[in-house]
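User: Some background: our group keeps a shared notebook of sequences we're curious about, and every so often someone picks one and asks for a predicted structure to add to the entry. Today it's my turn. The entry only has the sequence so far, pasted here. Could you supply the structure so I can complete it?
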Amino acid sequence: MIFRPISRTRLRNLEGFVNVTLILAGLSFRLTVASQTDTTQSAQLREITVTAGQAQGLAATHMLGVENFGIYKGKKTEVVSLAQITANTATNNPRQIYGRVTGLNIWESDGAGLQLGIGGRGLSPNRTANFNTRQNGYDISADALGYPESYYTPPAEALDRIEIVRGAASLQYGTQFGGLLNFRFKRGPEDRKIALTTRQTVGAWGFFGSFNSIGGTVLNDKLNYYAYFQYKRGDGWRPNSGFDYRCGYASADYRASDKLSLRLDLTRMDYLAQQPGGLTDKMFQDDARQSVRERNWFSVEWNMAALSLNYNFSEKTRLNVRNFGLLAQRQSLGNLERINVADFGQNRTLIDGQFKNMGQETRLLHQYKIDGLPQTLLFGYRLYSGFSTARQGDGSAGSDADFRFINPENLENSAYDFPNQNQAVFLENVFNLSSQWSLTPGLRYERIVTRAEGYFTQRVLDAAGNVIVQNKIDDNRERLRDFLIGGLGATFKPRETVEMYANISQNYRAINFTDLRIVNPNFVVDSNLRDERGFTADLGIRGSKSNIFTYEVTAFYIAYNGKIGQVLRADQPPLYNDYRFRSNISDARNIGLEAFGEVDLLRFFSLKKNQTRLTIFVNAAVVDARYVNTDDSAVRGKKVEMAPPLMLRTGISFQSGAWRGAFQFAHIGEHFSDATNAARTATAVEGLIPAYSVADLSVSYAWRWLTLEASCNNLLDARYFTRRAESYPGPGIIPSDGRGVYVTVGGRF
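Assistant: Of course. Here's the predicted structure to add to the notebook entry:
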């Protein structure tokens, strides 16, 4: 069964996408400044960067102290090199790809990797919204201010590496607690005019994936280009889980002179997925593969353009300008009633969201010396404008993917516009006090304006569910914030291969107006939500020896004031149904310890010095996240939801000649889905998420231009789940996929 997106669901203003590109180009060319490529940038700044941890041949490293127009000295950073891991990249398997990243809780809502859901250090994984999510340095989420969720995940087959910076990233990348998640795409080869790659994958439950790319360097080595197209489809592990996915990307990097370079990126993605709904606890225990929803659908379209310029004023002073824009749409259609209530074929709920945003981020990096020691100054500003719409009303009573409102001019639930604006200025400086000591202070000034303009419908139902009162209420509101946050980092290098670091940075997260008026029988949102404030602190040590081992141990503390969370409430009589209430629950604090180590055993014990490698890694994190400073006995001292107390991932990799193999194992401790720590409810929206363990195995063989790969996800066929959803793709328990085998044939030409 192949699902094809319905043409009427596509954005009607694709010509606006071209206009965005032209406008961005106009903004950039008026500035007429740029710098060298990121690769050159890293090389030229090597005299002041941290090189510890850059263990070539190992899959996990950390970022340089100054890299890609960013300062990372004194911060907890992690880098996953895709070329160094053996994993199921065709399905974007996050357990394997992020297995070396510490402290991550991963939601596994689909087996095809359509959406990524990760949260670090006790933060919710919901659509990765607690990270500032970027590709090649620019935003890719729906609306960084009003709706920071990302329905688009770059294909792992197209990536060079993934960069993660923890909470101290708030000073350079905006007001969030989770930090930065940045996907860096591959470039075309520097030594060839044209290179082709094709990868064809078949697997369990009708999965088929096709990835094809082209790249190279032309015009006397001045233009580097790279483009890909990916197609995926499948029927899913559970019934009613089919999907049809397309994604394309093209980039051109032009070096006009030794001083000036330009880069243009274009991205297009769309998919249609049927959603099988959630399960109650008993249904999951009886048969985790069953589905009691067959009329639920989800559709996404994502169109992005980005134009960046780099300009070298001198060897010491460089400028980077990033312009970006997004036109996107997401639509969900189905029955949102509690999963323990039968679907009687009534009109479905249709929620339509459209997103249009445009931004510019400019960074000036300057090197100078004090008493002969190199220093680095980073100054930047950000201009951002987002416009989102959210509409909710009745859809058809059918079973197909018909994304049309029955009454588009008079929606039954709500219709809103959300215009948002943001201006920010940030400053950081690396002060090298000696060859061993450095301090990195930073400041960021933010001005955030969020607005909500529209209406919602207030309904009163009788015991039989009939509408007895219905009022349409106009709702217009605006919030303006001006604030200054700061931070300080420090490093000490007792020797070249060891670095100790500490930092503390303030965090701030604005509320999302888009959450306020969604009508859902499974949860209610407090209309008086307040922004979250707090800080993040790290204390760590890391070190490495090239090609042999790397390690890092970090203690962290996250403080929230007015943390937004979810508590269990009950309806008034006569129903007394349980539901989630989302509000500023209380203050919270997350304390934890993260540890990572990776070693090539053969080189460590000097057993072999040829191309054979036997590498083992251990990634462990313990987290104690609790609600504090509250008089509410229902949550005082309770554990923060979606914060597993133990996350353990380990694996072993083997490489010899053309053969590569990897085995990974993950164990995640028991945790809760709401702030009251309810163990079980009739709706299954709240309750325990039991501890689970899961293993994966991947192997590959390369012969000249041909590559053969095989992967077994969930090798031991464990039955487990990672989330309880209050909305799509639920409500209820969302089972993770069972054992699935995939085979890939690839070629390079």
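Suggested note for the entry: The CA atoms of residues 150 and 188 lie 26 Å apart. Residues 14-31 form the longest helix (18 residues).
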